[in-house]
Amino acid sequence: MSSLIVAPPEHGADPAADPARLRRAFGAFATGVTVVTVGGASPRGMTANSFTSVSLDPALVLLCVGREAVMQGRLAEEGTFSVSVLGAGQEDVARHFANRSRPMGADQFDAVDWLPGRAAGAPLIAGAVAHFECVKWRTYDGGDHAIHLGRVLTLDELPDRDPLVFHRGAFRQLVPPSREGAP
Prior knowledge:
Layout: H1 19-26, E1 31-32, E2 34-38, E3 44-48, E4 51-56, E5 59-66, H2 70-77, E6 80-85, H3 91-98, E7 114-116, E8 123-125, E9 130-142, E10 145-157, E11 164-167, E12 170-173
Antiparallel strand pairs: 1-11, 2-3, 2-6, 4-5, 5-10, 6-9, 7-8, 9-10, 11-12
């Protein structure tokens, strides 16, 4: 068994000492934008960009949720969750589910078009680039966040739509490649 040797930070350079700088550096990595949802007696949605694929066999996805977030409590209560990957032009949906003053429960979905999930029973955002319905597989400690792995139960995709992207603190859209020099 090998051991990992970690060198001490040079000259006391603790990356967590400046949270604003750390956030800016993390923001250099462009991500997709999702809305994570749970169903049940008190449905909940939350904008998240900490979502990624993990495994093809079994089909697993990962999402991170702040320990203080309302969604964290709902995920602890529910055995399933859904993820809608937002498309270009759905910035208003992302902002809605990031707004902490939105209504609680089912009323928060009145402001958006959605459809009921077949397997997880959680709302799915209409017009999203992709939908994943998942059953909770594992949860891990991730510092001030919890890391949730979900096994994919169902998926749908709209391959002709471009995703909404988040980069350097702003929503972005993909720019088609230049046709310059193309035959």
